[in-house]
Amino acid sequence: MSGRLADEDRRALLCIARSAIARRLSLPTPDPPPPNPALCEKRGAFVTLRRRDDGELRGCVGFVEARHPLHEAVARAAELAAFEDSRFDPVEASEVAGLMVDVSVLSSLQPIAPEAVEIGVHGLLLRYAGRSGLLLPLVPLQFGWDRETFLQHTCRKAGLASDAWQKPGAELMAFTAELIEED
Q1: Range list of β-strands (E), 52-176
Q2: Residues 114-135: pLDDT tens digits?
Q3: Orientation angle between helical segments 70-83 and 7-24, nearest 10 degrees
Q4: DSSP-based three-state secondary structure for 112
Q5: 7-106, superfamily in CATH?
Q6: pTM here?
Q7: What is residue 4's predicted lDDT score, i.e. its pLDDT?
Q8: Percent of the chain at pLDDT above 90?
């Protein structure tokens, strides 16, 4: 897949994410539209949940590897973000209407040199010493990070020292993400 998703596909992915959460809670929800070919391609995807009233993160889970058709990856990621993100209690039915759902559709992973990382363009995956950490492209923009701070926080996300990206054997991979936001 190349280029940006069509508006109808973007709307369908938001509907798929929200429906997966609602169905798990046995809430009434419209059926998402049947997936068209663009949504059947295997792609990585993340679903981010935020509280509508204050923007606080409520869950964020996804798949960086393209192992599932996009529509399935989004549905699975939405359920995991809502109910399995270990940083948060599971979402309750009373919260669903107050959540904003964002979907990030990922490109494939590509090796990248640290000096080539572009803030707001690249998301990062760092692998080192059997650990890995991932941050989406939007994260450094939200916090006003420069390139080095972004690299350091990617290391910390992996549970590593902040300079692990400089160690021999560290694998730095980049991806881009098409962000689809509600509202």
Answers
A1: 57-63, 99-106, 110-111, 123-128, 131-135, 171-175
A2: 999 999 999 999 999 999 999 9
A3: 40
A4: coil
A5: Hypothetical protein ph0010; domain 1 (3.30.700.20)
A6: 0.87
A7: 86
A8: 90
DSSP designation for 121: T
Q: What is the CATH number of domain 110-176?
A: 3.30.1490.150
Distance CA 137, CA 52 (A): 21
pLDDT of residue 103: 97
Q: What is the pLDDT of residue 1?
A: 40
DSSP of 44-59, one letter per residue? EEEEEEEETTT--EEE
- Of the candidates 36, 37, 35, 31, which has an alpha carbon nearest to the alpha carbon of residue 15? 31
How far CA 114 is from CA of 107, 125, 151, 160, 172, in Å, comes to 18, 12, 8, 17, 8
What pairs with residue 88 in β-bridges? Answer: none
- Residue recorded with tokens 């209407």: 97
Average pLDDT over residues 134-152: 95
Each domain of the chain, given as residue ranges in start order, spans 7-106, 110-176
Amino acid letter, residue 113: A
> Once rounded to an integer, what is the mean pLDDT over residues 20-24?
96
Alpha carbons 72 and 69: distance in angstroms, whole number: 5
Give the pLDDT confidence score for residue 33 in this predicted structure: 78
Is there a contact between 106 and 175 (Cβ–Cβ < 8 Å)? yes
